[in-house]
Write a structure and sequence with these properties.
homodimer, alpha/beta, 434 Repressor (Amino-terminal Domain), Rossmann fold, 3 domains, 6-stranded parallel sheet, 4-stranded parallel sheet, DNA-binding
Chain lengths: ~350, ~350
DNA sequence: TTGAAAGCGTTACCAA
DNA sequence: TTGGTAACGCTTTCAA
């Protein structure tokens, strides 16, 4: 018995059972009308032959690839990982599969990835933030599929949006620090064009402190993203040198907050007491650190779920200009030990 | 002037320039013989029309999809993220693109993902560890493309391997603790089938302590992966209750080590002094924590680079049974403050 | 419930 | 250096 070379294809299965490829195609899908007996035989034959569908061929024919392109700044970031989890879980069970890319916070990388992904004909595209190269923006606009920008409220938006104002989230924290009685407040990070969400948080900090009549000049850079613990530590050294009477510090991320805090502890400063410290993002480390760190929870997983919801809705609709939607999420302040007034 | 509907395809570009699709296909690739002038015109036309290659069609025709399927347990894990980075960077510039999936440490999820990914006809498949369902193993074996198992040394291996013995890595740490003079040593984590690398580390701990003539019964579970700080904290409570005379603890991950350590600090124990603590993985938090945490650096990024190297080599070779290769990497002990003898 | 024929958009192959 | 033709493996569409 001569076995065919190469992986089995649909016609091999069809031949073995004695039906047409169309019947096989139908039998392997749910919700199609094929007689029970035929379907059983086809399943059996497919199993025997180790048949696997060729999605590229299927997609080419049906014009539906089942890909959702998702582009995030970094994989190793609990916040974006949570968003991805939200997306994955909500998309699970649908015919959609995520094509994931990460940019390392570089909009030129983003452009490259978008270009690469477009050739895979995704049915929807999800990007992080509203800062893109001109060409990337053009590619997204012309893509002809739903585009979702998340984690921010860009103006103008390309298409769909799920996010929040990073600047306003900062306000929550500044107000908390003010209420606790802190007046000389510093800010670490958010100084680079590459991390626009960080920039917005810093802007929000400046606006909020101004509004409260506080000084807003204690700003320390923390270098290129991703934000790390190291940078928080280095920045805290600078801050302590330049403005040694600082009472509280807000950091662009919990990671730099942790680094800043350990730097204080190593210098013999008490946190809180000599220095109050706040972060952003509600990472695990903020909860378990000693002292635990006051932070902002942005609801990262929920963002992913909302994005998935939009995609499912948009793809169900047949070229109906269902219009743009902007879903605003609500960042929440989480008060912990690191900002207590002693 | 009537514009065609839908996205531009190759024939649209060809028509506009007045050449065949073959010439367009060639002109858009590098290292093909097309006259300079023609190529210029074609590039121009493609740009004007916003033409994007349809990779599905290209892959169908050429039998090369450009996909490398990569399956890791978790995205939000600095170790696997580093491996992914190594892979990405080394693959960058080649025609290969990563199709990423994560299993949440569930081999049934892994099987599903493998199945899903196979229909995309990847040119190589990378999986984490050597523990798979029977069906997954069968799918991988029959896939007809190079398969790389990484982060472990499975026996028997399916095909290619890049990894290290997690058990032996544990030995490094036990010996370090022994040399520091610790005798009553506990272990946290590595108790679940789902994390086979954790299991191996625990087994290695038991073997090594036995060999040194130490007690090896101070084992505390830490629940399902992913390993978190919370679990380290909870486990430390249990350990302190059950075996209050414990001198040192090794944890299956730096994250649980950090949780365990903060639990000690909150209980008023000195680390080191009253309790020595060691982790695994060399996460950032181990370096920045106060005290800093002794750990094992497994060279995660290097693993990714080695995997990419194998893939590039395998795909360059034309059906030559280049054979299986096993690359062993070398985990390194990193001594820090948390295990100092006071 | 089933099948035949005609694509889907690209590249391999061979010829000019 | 260029082009014609025939796939690639599947689904759509229309008919039976």
């Amino acid at each position: 018995m001569a076995t065919k070379p190469g992986p089995a294809k649909m016609s091999d299965v069809a031949e073995r059972v004695g039906v047409s490829t169309m019947t096989v195609s139908r039998a392997l899908k749910v919700g199609t009308s094929v007689s029970e007996e035929t379907r059983r035989q086809i399943r059996q034959a497919a199993d025997d032959l180790g048949y696997v569908l060729n999605s590229a061929a299927a997609g080419l024919s049906s014009q539906r690839t089942g890909f959702v392109a998702v582009i995030i700044p970094s994989v190793n970031n609990a916040n974006f990982a949570d968003t991805l989890r939200g997306l994955t879980e909500k998309l699970h069970g649908s015919r959609l599969q995520i094509l994931l890319g990460y940019t390392d916070y570089d909009i030129n990388r983003e452009e490259q990835i978008i270009e690469q992904f477009l050739s895979r004909q995704p049915e929807a595209i999800v990007v992080t933030g509203g800062s893109h190269t001109d060409r990337a923006r053009q590619l997204l606009t012309q893509a002809g599929v739903p585009v979702v920008e998340m984690w921010d409220l860009p103006t103008p938006a390309i298409d769909q949006v799920v996010g929040f104002s990073n600047a306003r989230a900062s306000t929550l924290m500044v107000e908390h620090l003010f209420q606790q009685g802190y007046r000389k407040i510093g800010f670490i990070g958010g100084d680079t064009e590459r991390d626009t969400r960080g920039l917005d948080r810093r802007r929000g900090f400046i606006t909020a402190t101004k509004k409260l009549g506080l000084q807003y000049h204690r700003l320390v850079a923390s270098g290129h993203p991703p934000v790390t613990m190291r940078e928080g530590a280095v920045a805290m050294q600078i801050l302590l040198t330049q403005w040694s009477d600082t009472e509280a510090v807000m950091c662009v991320s919990d990671l730099s907050a942790f680094g800043a805090m350990t730097e204080c502890l190593r210098s013999g400063l008490r946190v809180p007491g000599d220095m109050a410290i706040a972060g952003f993002g509600d990472y695990d480390v903020a909860e378990y650190a000693v002292p635990s760190i006051t932070t902002i929870d942005v609801g990262a997983q929920m963002i992913g779920e909302q994005v998935a919801g939009i995609i499912l809705r948009e793809l169900a609709i047949i070229d109906d200009n269902s219009g743009q939607s902007v879903i605003k999420t609500e960042p929440k302040l989480i008060v912990r030990e690191s900002t207590k007034r002693l």
